[in-house]
Specification:
Order of helices and strands of chain C: EEEHEEHEHHHEHEHEEHH
Distance between the termini of chain C: 32 Å
Shape of chain C: globular
Radius of gyration of chain C: 19 Å
Helix content of chain B: 55-70%
Number of strands of chain C: 10
Strand order of the largest sheet of chain C: 6-7-8-3-9-10
CATH class of the largest domain in chain C: Alpha Beta
Pfam family, one (chain C): ABC_tran
CATH architecture of the largest domain in chain C: 3-Layer(aba) Sandwich
Organism (chain C): Litoreibacter roseus
Radius of gyration of chain B: 24 Å
Number of strands of chain B: 6
Structural class of chain C: alpha/beta
Keywords (chain C): ATP-binding, Nucleotide-binding, Transport
Distance between the termini of chain B: 53 Å
InterPro entries (chain C): AAA+_ATPase, ABC_AA/LPS_Transport, ABC_transporter-like_ATP-bd, P-loop_NTPase
CATH topology of one domain in chain B: ABC transporter involved in vitamin B12 uptake, BtuC
Strand order of the largest sheet of chain B: 1-6
Oligomer: heterotrimer
CATH topology of the largest domain in chain C: Rossmann fold
CATH superfamily of the largest domain in chain C: P-loop containing nucleotide triphosphate hydrolases
Protein name (chain C): ABC transporter ATP-binding protein
Number of helices of chain B: 17
Largest sheet of chain C: 6 strands, mixed
Strand content of chain C: 15-25%
Mean pLDDT of chain C: 86
């Protein structure tokens, strides 16, 4: 029992990332009808927003520390971050340590802009072209984006730790009445899952309860009719693209403490997220979320030593295997394809 | 000739001349000149030109004719490679059985993958093939280690004693064709120029030419016409009494066999294989090649493969020092600026150049380099015609005056 | 016994009974029109004949062979060709290739692995294709890309693609929908010519009464998924039931 709960918990963080990326992919496919191979790159850009903010906050100036000397006996020069100068050393240090959560605020406008620019600058021109062309051009864009990031940040993963308050683990098992030390779970993963759940809820609420969301949902169901009603659906779809970019970006920001970001993380996640979208049902938002979590948890179960003993290597292929079975037996995925959220 | 029209024969002979004379054509600069870094006429690179050319020709038979975009073709390349190296380890160091084995293995695997993947079309097909390829990669990397050598892959080792090759104990086998070592080269020095003729290259080139010839035949056959019909309108095709399934499956298997041929040739050249050969970026690469050159055209994929492999090797060798050399004639400030501008596009950043070039092609030139060439040709022809018509206009105007 | 026998065919989509208890017999070498108001089930019926849909109940036999459960290409190989409401052609291919493909299908069957035979050496096929293009007076356009044809030419090309296979039964789904009067008349003339020259049975689904009355020898009126009347054109015009269900609103 403990083992099962532990695996479910372990699957949640990857599942959350899959769900968030797949949600954005589905929003874009559902509204714009575009297959976006550059969505993983958006996830990665989000992660690098966190890196960037960390670097900005750590920008330092040199001061001479009179109390200490270097080995030649000269006064020691030390780098002091500007924030220390402004807010005092303690507060400044805390701000730097909290750079990942703070990056959420930083990433939202950045991702909005990136998404907006991408849709207006490139994707817009591909609405009427075949899916193959859309795949190809966004694939090219993904390469360009990841190479640009590589040019600026190098090829190595960059550690971006969580705030010290959230590093370490806690005994989740003891909390829910199991023996102590059976289910140990890192704080940050719990936070990541909570955050993902919050973002997903926000997106659904937004689509469900605002007029904007209503128009978008109508547009997902039948784009032409909504266009005929005199509603400028294109502008809303642009917004939708920006929102999808923000969702992917936030997923990336918060993922950085779990895995240090590198330039190819986007592509690594993209391939799996596409599989998730297909399993969930192309164009179905709840399907994408559900499939994201289900596959994340399945992957985690498949990684158990007991399972690997029976079927070696299953952890490596479980997601693809599920996708192949689903596509062949139920081509429209877990939760249908007939468009809108209600289905 | 060879059952081809004059135009196709010309194309075939042109490609044959290009590949056979490649050691000359690719080494236009004297050995010790500053431009020598642009020479591509060394065996390793030339082999890759023709091997990836073969791979791209096969991919084009599927994507170019039927429009089914496979994102997992590298899996067949990998399977072909594994098949070939086992043949070398167990049976003989002669490359021919190895290559044939590569083709057969890849063809069988393509039959399996194609049978399942082709039940869906469009984006679903792309994702299914991608899933299969990633699965193969993951399996080759981990579980199948006894067969695939896992992360390190497989090489010919001193412990390998192929049945039909008499190796001295402890001798590491070398790939050969009836005794001709794949790595043996003949070097020709003319003045400052050095030309290398490599046995392996010519074997690979002949394989590619055969592949190219078969691809022309397929393009011009009723079968090829049916494949284009699949791309154009599958519904009409079915209502015309044709079963599109076996046609697409046949195209898939054929293109898988080309990938296997390429994989077998790779093993024949360097006698090693690793799972990264099946990674999805490798599948993406062949897509890039076909698109860059011109999907659905005969020669496009070959050009695309050549161009990408050339860029990969040459661009990635250029470094800042070389850039400084080039721009040395500029004032210092501008020199540094230019170097800074070009820096991200060269050396390790050549993928950026590739990505940008690829995007530009998809956006502005969906027909690839071939379409680009045709457009330029048309501009010249139009200019000629304009000149003609200006003359004839002038002639008309002159007439009344006379 | 007609060439096409439809017996007790029913088809249901969720809560909608699209067809119920359809009985229809199309006699050989006649032109049989199926008319009816929107939503009467005409297209559903046609799709059940060509293998796109499988009826829930009943049977469809063509020359004594059941069509149920057969794929579209198998049904075509039996000698049933279909013309679509909007012309379905191979838009990326040339006009000549468009006609050659059905020739190959007619000669070689549903699949033939002839990957190394040259199209150029297939002189028989080419002659046959050019002959039919001449019949529909499109020979001079044989090297044009099909997508660049006018709509009327696309329709003619589609007819040529069907006719080159010498079908025994030609199914036409609103062949004049959305056409200008002149084009409609051309199509009627073309169909009349086909009917006179060949041993062919045609089943036409049509909205335009002008077309129906100029071509059809028998007319079946479909309403709410069931055949109402089957009669000759003369008798249909005065039929009270039909007037009520259909002609009343069309005002012929």
């Amino acid at each position: 029992m403990e083992a099962i709960i532990l695996q479910i918990l372990n699957g949640l963080d990857k599942g959350s990332a899959y769900a968030l990326i797949a949600l954005g992919l589905t929003l874009i496919f559902g509204t714009l009808g575009v297959v976006n191979f550059a969505h993983g790159a958006l996830f990665m850009i989000g992660a690098f927003c966190a890196v960037t903010l960390q670097r900005i906050l750590s920008l330092s100036y040199e001061v001479v520390d009179d109390t200490r000397t270097d080995f030649l006996g000269n006064p020691l020069k030390v780098d002091v971050p500007y924030v220390n100068g402004w807010f005092g050393p303690e507060m400044g240090q805390t701000i730097i340590e909290w750079s990942v959560p703070l990056a959420i605020l930083f990433a939202i406008p950045v991702m909005m802009f990136v998404g907006y620019a991408m849709e207006r600058g490139l994707i817009k021109h591909f609405y009427k072209r075949p899916h193959a062309d859309q795949i190809l051009v966004t694939f090219g864009l993904a390469i360009v984006l990841q190479e640009v990031i590589k040019a600026f940040y190098g090829a190595n993963p960059i550690p971006t730790p969580a705030p010290p308050a959230f590093t370490g683990s806690f005994d989740f098992g003891a909390l829910i009445g199991f023996d102590p030390n059976q289910i140990i779970y890192p704080y940050w993963r719990l936070i990541y899952f909570t955050f993902a759940a919050f973002v997903i809820t926000a997106v659904f609420a937004f689509l469900q309860f605002t007029t904007f969301g209503m128009v978008v949902r109508a547009g997902m169901a039948d784009r032409e009719t909504v266009g005929l009603l005199g509603i400028d659906i294109d502008k809303r779809f642009t917004m939708m693209f920006a929102i999808a970019a923000v969702v992917a970006g936030l997923a990336g920001v918060m993922y950085t403490p779990i895995n240090s970001p590198n330039y190819h993380m986007g592509m690594d996640f993209l391939v799996l997220s596409f599989v998730v979208v297909v399993v969930g049902g192309m164009g179905s938002l709840p399907g994408a979320v559900l499939a994201g979590f289900v596959l994340g948890i399945l992957e985690s179960f498949a990684s158990m030593a007991e399972v690997i003993d029976i079927i070696p290597g299953i952890n490596q292929i479980i997601i693809y295997l599920v996708a192949i079975i689903i596509l062949l037996t139920r081509p429209r995925g877990l939760m249908g394809r007939r468009g809108v959220m209600e289905d | 000739m060879f059952g081809l029209s004059t135009k196709d024969t010309t194309l075939l002979l042109f490609v044959a001349a290009l590949t056979l004379l490649a050691p000359f054509l690719l080494n236009p600069f004297p050995e010790n000149s500053a431009m020598a870094q642009f020479n591509a006429g060394y065996p390793d690179l030339m082999q890759r030109f023709v091997i990836f050319g073969t791979f791209a020709i096969g991919f084009n038979i599927l994507f170019g004719l039927t429009g089914y975009l496979s994102f997992g073709h590298a899996a067949f390349l990998g399977v072909g490679s594994y098949g070939a190296i086992w043949m070398m380890k167990l049976l003989t160091l002669n490359v021919i059985p190895a290559i044939i084995m590569g083709v057969i293995f890849a063809g069988l695997f393509a039959l399996l993958v194609g049978y399942i993947s082709l039940r869906r079309s469009g984006i679903y097909f792309s994702i299914l093939t991608l899933a299969f390829a990633q699965m193969s990669y993951a399996l080759a990397y981990s579980v199948l280690t006894p067969i695939t050598g896992g992360e390190t892959g497989l090489q010919l080792k001193a412990t390998d004693t192929p049945l039909l090759s008499n190796l001295a104990p402890g001798e590491i086998g070398r790939a050969n064709l009836f005794g001709v070592d794949m790595r043996s080269s003949y070097e020709l020095v003319i003045g400052d120029w050095l030309f290398t003729f490599n046995a392996g290259y010519y074997i690979a080139a002949v394989c590619m030419l055969i592949g190219f010839y078969i691809s022309i035949r397929i393009f011009r056959s009723p079968f090829g016409m049916m494949l284009r019909a699949v791309k154009s309108n599958q519904q009409r095709m079915n209502y015309t009494g044709l079963n599109s399934k076996p046609y697409t499956l046949a195209a898939f298997v054929i293109s898988g066999m080309y990938a296997g041929l390429a994989g077998g040739l790779m093993v024949a050249m360097d006698t090693q294989v690793g799972p990264e050969r099946m990674f999805w970026t490798a599948s993406g690469e062949v897509v890039l090649m076909a698109i860059l050159g011109g999907v659905g055209t005969l020669i496009g994929p070959v050009l695309g493969a050549g161009m990408i492999k050339y860029m990969e090797n040459i661009l990635s060798k250029i470094n800042d020092a070389i850039l400084h050399q080039w721009f040395a004639f500029m004032p210092d400030g501008i020199e540094n600026l230019l170097v800074a501008i070009f820096h991200p596009f060269i050396g390790k950043g050549w993928h950026l150049t590739l990505g940008m070039l690829f995007m530009l092609i998809v956006i502005f030139l969906p027909g690839g380099l071939v379409e680009g060439g045709q457009r330029i040709g048309r501009i010249f022809r139009r200019r000629d015609r304009k000149a003609d018509s200006v003359e004839s206009d002038a002639a008309k105007q002159r007439k009344p005056a006379e | 016994m007609g060439i096409l026998e439809i017996k007790n065919v029913g088809k249901r989509f969720g809560g909608l009974q699209a067809l119920s208890d359809v009985n229809l017999s199309v006699a050989e070498n006649t032109v049989h029109a199926i008319i009816g108001p929107n939503g009467a089930g005409k297209s559903t019926l046609l799709n059940c004949l060509v293998g796109k849909l499988i009826p829930d109940t009943g049977s469809v036999t063509f020359q004594g062979q059941s069509l149920l459960g057969r794929k579209p290409h198998e049904i075509n190989q039996l000698g049933v060709s279909r013309v679509f409401q909007t012309p379905e052609i191979f838009a990326d291919l040339t006009v000549l290739e468009n006609v050659m493909i059905p020739c190959f299908a007619h000669r070689d069957g549903a699949f033939q692995m002839n990957a190394l035979r040259g199209v150029r050496s297939e002189t028989d096929i080419r002659q046959k294709a050019e002959q039919i293009l001449e019949d529909v007076s499109m020979l001079e356009k044989e090297n044009m890309q099909a997508s660049s044809l006018s709509r009327g030419d696309k329709r003619r090309l589609e007819m040529a693609m069907c006719l080159v296979q010498d079908p025994k039964l030609l199914l036409l789904d609103e062949p004049t929908a959305g056409m200008a009067r002149a084009d409609t008349n051309n199509t009627i003339d073309l169909l009349k010519e086909i009917k006179d020259k060949r041993d062919i049975t045609m089943a036409i689904i049509e909205h335009d009464m002008h077309v129906v009355f100029s071509l059809a020898e028998r007319i079946t009126v479909l309403a709410q998924g069931t055949p109402l009347v089957e009669e000759t054109p003369e008798n249909i015009k005065g039929h009270p039931k039909v007037r009520e269900a259909y002609l009343g609103e069309a005002q012929v």
